């Protein structure tokens, strides 16, 4: 059984997240003994802060996760840039289409009213639906105006366009544990055993939020603390491949932890879905 809690990333402080993740590991080992925790790094959409170790998110994660039951957890970094948040142009088209449909609904409603087919008792639900439609028309009109203004500002101000792109990137950043749970479960279903998925289609994902140097990857995979972290990387900007170092913590016969390193290639495509699967 896999346990993933990507929603932990909305907690206000890294310490809060670390406390819950420690309980996840305890549950997997001490309470059940047959479960695996998939862990995200708090603020994993950010790059590492090598100049200030006290504020480095990887060092912080390793300190907060503790030393217990590590063989029952897998950590992934960085987060994924998904395609869940619409661009203003796409939103404008969607709102415009809604407005057209609601205009047709209003016209049909007027015709029904003229024919006297809506009665007080028999058509209460229809009337409530039509009232909701009128409210949505007003809401759509306001949204269309806002989207049009946003598009005009983008055209007039390159800095505003850059700022908007950064905001969208932040909104689209999602922790990877949910996607990895789906991939591992799918591999279990197909192969009949728990293995990293290879050449698996990962939908609604554009790229990892952060890129690494070779030295950074080495530190993440083989740290002195033995608290390894799986890296999600893209071999080249034009490559659709993601390489994930699916490193697991495996308890040896001694009190130390040995690393079992594996690599999995994930093919990613952009789609209109809301959640990476």
Structure description:
With 277 residues, the protein is of the alpha/beta class. The chain folds into 2 domains: 2-79 and 175-269, no CATH class; 88-169. The protein has 7 helices and 12 strands. The strands form 3 sheets. A 7-stranded mixed sheet has the order 1-2-3-8-9-12-6, with helices on both faces. The protein has a 3-stranded antiparallel sheet with strand order 5-4-7. Strands 10-11 form a two-stranded antiparallel sheet. A hairpin with a 7-residue loop joins strand 8 (230-233) and strand 9 (241-245). Helix 3 runs antiparallel to helix 4 (124-156) and helix 4 (124-156) packs across helix 5 (158-172). It is globular and about 60 Å long.
Q: What structural class is derived from the secondary structure elements?
A: alpha/beta
The percent range for strand residues is 15-25%
Integer average pLDDT: 70
Through-space gap between termini:
18 Å
Short structural summary:
The protein is an alpha/beta fold.
Walk me through the topology:
Elements: E1 2-4, H1 14-32, E2 36-40, H2 57-64, E3 73-77, E4 80-82, H3 88-115, H4 124-156, H5 158-172, E5 173-174, H6 177-191, E6 200-203, E7 205-208, H7 214-221, E8 230-233, E9 241-245, E10 248-251, E11 257-260, E12 263-269
Parallel strand pairs: 1-2, 2-3, 3-8, 6-12
Antiparallel strand pairs: 4-5, 4-7, 8-9, 9-12, 10-11
Quick tags:
single chain, 277 residues, alpha/beta, 2 domains, 7-stranded mixed sheet, 3-stranded antiparallel sheet, 7 helices, 12 strands
């Amino acid at each position: 059984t896999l346990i993933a809690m990507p929603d932990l990333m909305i907690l206000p402080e890294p310490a809060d997240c670390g406390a819950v993740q420690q309980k996840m590991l305890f549950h997997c080992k001490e309470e059940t003994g047959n479960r695996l925790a998939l862990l995200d790094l708090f603020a994993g959409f950010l790059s590492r802060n090598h100049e200030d170790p006290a504020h480095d998110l990887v060092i912080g994660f390793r300190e907060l996760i503790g030393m217990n039951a590590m063989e029952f957890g897998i950590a992934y970094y960085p987060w994924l840039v998904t395609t869940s948040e619409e661009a203003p142009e796409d939103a404008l088209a969607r709102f415009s289409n809604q407005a057209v449909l609601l205009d047709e609904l209003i016209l049909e409603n007027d015709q029904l009213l003229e024919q006297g087919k809506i009665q007080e008792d028999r058509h209460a639900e229809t009337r409530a639906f039509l009232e909701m439609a009128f409210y949505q028309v007003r809401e759509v009109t306001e949204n269309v105006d806002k989207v049009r203004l946003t598009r005009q500002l983008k055209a007039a101000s390159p800095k505003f366009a850059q700022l908007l792109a950064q905001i969208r990137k932040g909104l689209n950043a999602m922790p990877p544990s949910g996607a990895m749970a789906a991939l591992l479960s799918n591999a279990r279903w197909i192969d009949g055993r728990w293995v990293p998925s290879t050449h698996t289609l990962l939908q609604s994902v554009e790229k990892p939020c952060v890129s690494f140097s070779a030295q950074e990857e080495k530190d993440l995979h083989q740290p002195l603390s033995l608290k390894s972290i799986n890296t999600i990387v893209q071999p080249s900007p034009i490559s659709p491949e993601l390489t994930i170092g699916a490193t697991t913590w495996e308890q040896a016969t001694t009190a130390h932890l040995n690393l079992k390193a594996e690599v999995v290639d994930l093919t990613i495509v952009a789609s209109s879905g809301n959640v990476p699967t």
